[in-house]
Amino acid sequence: MEQFSLTGRTAIVTGALGLLGREHCSALSEAGARVVAADLDGGACTAFAGETAAGEQGEAMGVSLDVTSEQSIREARDAILRRYGTIDILVNNAAINDRFENPAAALEESRFESYPAALWRRSFEVNVTGMFLCSQIFGTVMASRGSGSIINIASTYGIVAPDQSLYRTPDGKQRFYKTPAYPATKGAVLAFTRFLAAYWGGKGVRVNALSPGGVENAQDRFFVEQYSARTPLGRMAAPSDYRGAIVFLASDASAYMTGANLVVDGGWTAW
Question: What CA–CA distance (Å, rounded) separates 209 from 98?
Fold first, then answer.
């Protein structure tokens, strides 16, 4: 089990305050890593880092991070290196997914024919450019010292198309459509993962993707039931279902793995 130990390593998780970001931080801390919780709200990250370190008897810090800002990422890098002297693991978890504030307008706004280009551009700025910048700035530290693990969070919707019928109520009404930006950006995450794995393989930096399935998080009951029926394991994921995968990809247990996409989706993409 020593291969799974992250003792002495520093791990950065972007989007750390999100549902899965918190789980990633906790899992890495439990495995022994010094965890850097990075998100837009630096104060909340610091508070969460304190909880994480106390809960797992480890060490953690919080930093304010805007993944679309090179200056913000460099400032975070410098703060991490001042405190820990090294960066060993990067989890590119920060991402946005379209949400529509007005339910009455959601159907029309989410329809491909009328989907706003501004939302498309914003998704690519965060989900793709943000991943690129964090990998470039944090990953260069790893490449310069000859080792590291980068984990890019993708999605099943980067592999297969959204099933639009899931967003249809039992009486047949379409609430909204899954918009094109999220699947397109997550497909780009997978392509970028393969590029960087090949580029930095000789530098000892492994780059892999994790494609989670849908996580149950207070969605409408009809959606949960329809998603579960569409999944071989018969349920949506719990937030904790990805803890083992994150530790595996971050640790020496996956030492001969790079450029891969680890799919943890309850079988969603198996049929």
Answer: 22
As a whole number of angstroms, the distance between CA 218 and CA 74 comes to 36
Tokens of residue 101, six digits: 């504030």
* pLDDT of 101 strictly over 60: yes
Distance CA 58, CA 52 (A): 8
More confident residue, 183 or 103: 183
- Structure pTM? 0.96
Q: Which of 167, 182, 227, 242 is catalytic?
A: 182
Q: Is 227 a catalytic residue?
A: no
CATH (domain of 49): 3.40.50.720
CB-based contact 177:110 (threshold 8 Å): yes
pLDDT at 174 over 80: yes
Range(s) of the domain holding residue 192? 2-270
**pLDDT value for 57:** 55
- CA dist., res. 108 & res. 177, Å (int): 9
Q: Please state the domain count of the chain.
A: 1
Across-strand partners of 37? 13, 62
Tokens (6 digits) for 85 = 């002297």
Percent of the chain predicted with pLDDT > 90: 94
Average pLDDT, the chain: 96
Strand 261-264 relative to strand 148-153, pairing: unpaired
Q: How far apart are the first and last CA of the chain?
A: 33
